[in-house]
């Protein structure tokens, strides 16, 4: 009981700590304009052209909504990243273009992650139900099945790490090739590093949870 409470506290601290750092970096560099004077949407279009990736629309979404959607091969940026010329905006936009380039070039880890999505969607929504059913019915087989399902969710988190890091690497390479001054690239790197930390934190928490479940099962 106490060990599980400790796990919850640790997970909460890791999650909140990572989010605090991300918000701090995003806010800091949202107030620093890029010398390019280009909004995120324009930077995204330029990076897509640089990599020879046509036919990827760049749309404005809701607050805090930044993502690449492989289902329709589109990029969505939040209002700030879409329309502002800040360091945060161009770093965010170029990161999402990094995902579009991955998709266009058939980047292995991204293809693997996409293949996991249907399994993970099922596993994430069902593992806890199966786990609780195993406890209440005292069926070890159900508990084992629940742990296996949760392991797929952990695998997804782990595979996400190289996908996100590679997208940021592509963004930084482009910003350097485009001639962004070194001091501004340092700011962009700080933003992308902070965002990557959230994925590292999520993977760490998931892995710790899986180890706890395995330990509890063995006991």
Main beta-sheet annotation: 3 strands, mixed
What proportion of the residues is helical, as a percent range? over 70%
Number of E-type strands:
3
Amount of beta strand? under 5%
Q: So how many helices?
A: 7
**What is the radius of gyration?**
20 Å
Average pLDDT works out at: 91
What is the CA-CA span between the terminal residues? 13 Å
| SS-derived structural category | mainly alpha
In sequence order, what are the helices and strands, one letter per element? HHEEEHHHHH
Major β-sheet strand ordering: 1-3-2
Could you walk me through the main structural features you see in this protein, from its secondary elements to its overall organization?
The chain has 219 residues and is mainly alpha-helical. Helices cover 77% and strands 5% of the residues. The protein contains seven helices and three strands, in the order ααβββααααα. The chain has a three-stranded mixed beta sheet with strand order 1-3-2. A hairpin with a 4-residue loop joins strand 2 (67-69) and strand 3 (74-77). Helix 4 packs across helix 6 (140-177).
Descriptors for this entry?
219 residues, mainly alpha, three-stranded mixed sheet, 77% helix
Quick structural overview:
This protein is mainly alpha-helical and 219 residues long.
Blueprint of the fold:
Elements lengths: L1 H29 L9 H11 L7 E3 L6 E3 L4 E4 L1 H5 L3 H19 L2 H30 L2 H38 L4 H37 L1
Parallel strand pairs: 1-3
Antiparallel strand pairs: 2-3
Helix pairs in contact: 1-7, 2-4, 4-6, 4-7, 5-6, 6-7
